[in-house]
Amino acid sequence: MNSHVSPGGYTGTSPHWLREPADVNDLVSILWPSTARKDDDGVLHIGGLAIPDLVANVNTPAYVLDEADFRERAGAFRDAFAGYDVYYAGKAFLSVAVAQWVAEEGLSLDVCSNGELSVALRAGVDPRRIGYHGNNKTPMELRRAVDAGVGRIIVDSFHEIDRVADVATQLGVVQGVMIRVTAGVEAHTHEFIATAHEDQKFGFSIASGDAFDAASRVLAQKSLELRGLHSHIGSQIFDTSGWEVAGRRVLALHARIADELGRVLPELDLGGGFGIAYTTQDDPADPAVLAAQITKIVTGECAALGIDVPHLSIEPGRAIVGPAMCTIYTVGTVKQVALDGGAIRTYVSVDGGMSDNLRPALYDADYSCTLASRASSAEPVLARVVGKHCESGDIVVKDEFLPGDVAPGDLLAVPATGAYGRSMASNYNHALRPPVVAVKDGRARVIVRRETEEDLLATDVG
Ligand SMILES: *Cc1c(COP(=O)(O)O)cnc(C)c1O
Asked: Are 278 and 365 in contact (CB under 8 A)?
């Protein structure tokens, strides 16, 4: 199985997984994009650019996206899962440039709103390679998606089946759909639970028979073409045992639909959720290892059921964009706080926070960070990096060792913020959402600009 421990688990003032590094200046390579390195002065470089030079132009906070690393990760999934369709889950992070990279790397794209669809279409993504998700797509959104010619709509309720059928009939097309099913498996972080996770808003339950009923309902609609079943079991998953249980249940339904409804569904989607390293406690598997394990699970189960293996697809989001991006902040204040028992925690405040990375507040997520603008020979101290918002839960990095001389004006870089960082960013406290700067071969390109006060005031019509 795995050797992961549950997050939290403090012993004294630091979580038990956090080790004082031999050299606090070093980068832990699994956390960083492939082109990240530090020079002899301790200055962080990404994509051939020195971070202090970059932020001299774009200011902080800023997200820095390593284009080569993004393309490598996309390509690694494409190659490892050859024979599958790989849908990049755009909700992790989507912009016009990124949608173009996704298409250029030969991946398909998942969206879950008309806003994401607009970005994909503006990027010139082939609509036939777009999947459309969501548990409450409005008739207007569905009309736009069907009209645009999206390849598949993943239906999530009986109401929606009728709605998509109506829209397709009105537009005179046959719309490809997948049925989102709930396999009663919830995989999250370091463990999975195989029962009692039907109690959630997504999908049709296999156990209750709803998923089977949904299939017969779709098959009865002339304006719909049922492409297959779709199962997404969670996020930040580290081992394939959850897919094994879910795969067995989903394929049993797939076989039952062939038997009882006389329709062999051509496709099957296994969802996303492949884990990445946010800190040294995470140990993600290589896409090639995942592909071999998942393919073995599905082919084994199909053989046992005596059915052909359907055309498979997966939907990684985080595992492609997460580690490709980091966030750069400037330190504003440093404070020593005495803890019970006499220990000291160093609070380092930076110029962003929960408005540019909600995951620590939302999921109690752990991150890591490093001093990006210089080397230090000071003794490491246990630090907590916090944002500038009016919430005590506004934490950027809960626990990390930083050099004891960390000071106002230093730059800090937080790795692995690419997924659900910018995409969940808010204007809380009327913060201006930071830019995304793509770097490659020594060149920087702003692909999403920083918001301005004019942007904020534009929607405030008095
Ligand atoms: C969120 C989501 C994904 C992507 O999850 P990651 O953890 O980013 O890989 C894929 N499929 C569906 C249906 C999702 O909701």
From this structure: yes
In the annotation, is 326 catalytic? no
Q: Ligand 1 mean position to 5 CA, how many Å? A: 23
Q: Mean of the pLDDT values across residues 358-383?
A: 96
CB distance 53 to 372 below 8 Å: no
- Ligand 1 center from residue 315 Cα (angstroms): 6
pLDDT in tens, 266-280: 999 999 999 999 999
The single residue of 112, 326, 369, 390 carrying the catalytic annotation is 390
Instruction: Please tell me what DSSP assigns to residue 197.
Output: -
Tell me which of 3.40.50.300, 3.30.830.10, 2.40.37.10, 2.40.100.10 is the CATH number of domain 2-61+325-417+434-455: 2.40.37.10
Per residue in 145-201, pLDDT (tens digit) is 999 999 999 999 999 999 999 999 999 999 999 999 999 887 766 566 665 467 778
Q: Note whether 430 and 390 are within 8 A (CB).
A: no
Q: What is the pTM of this model?
A: 0.95
Domains of the chain, by residue range, sit at: 2-61+325-417+434-455, 67-321
Q: Which atom number of ligand 1 is nearest to the Cα of residue 318? A: 8
Q: Which ligand 1 atom is at minimum distance from the Cα of 180?
A: 13
Buried b (16+ CB within 10 A) or exposed e, 386-425: bbbbeeeebbbbbbbbbbbebeeebbbbbbbbbbbbbbbb
Q: Which CATH class for the 67-321 domain?
A: alpha beta
